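=== Discrete structure encoding ===
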Amino acid sequence: MTIDWRNLLAVAAGGALGSSLRYVLGIVSLHVLGPGFPWGTLLINVIGSFAIGLVGEFAIGPHALGSAMRVFLMIGVLGGFTTFSAFSLESLSLVVTRAPIIPFAYVAGSVVLGIAFCYVGVLLGRSLIHL
């Protein structure tokens, strides 16, 4: 296995930008919409999902993005902004290419296992704090 250092740097730079954008949008949405609902996260996930669909279309075809630009935008910026965008694109891809049970299993498994393992992490963290 070899690592393309140019792509790695593109991911790192994009990740810094995407994470910073997520932070700013989270603060702005909290200020504008209030703390009663996780509006910032919802907004970030929806924007990220739209953006990865749009960028994904430019990553293929006759006007395809170069490798460094593709990883900068899709893995770096959008990965730093939200991994939900990748989840959305992968889910859509499974809906288009697989039998209905496969995308349903992926979506349900991701949500249920994600919440379950988050809870296990909380329990572990609480038990480690009390050691």
About this structure: Residues 59 and 65 are 5 Å apart (CA to CA).
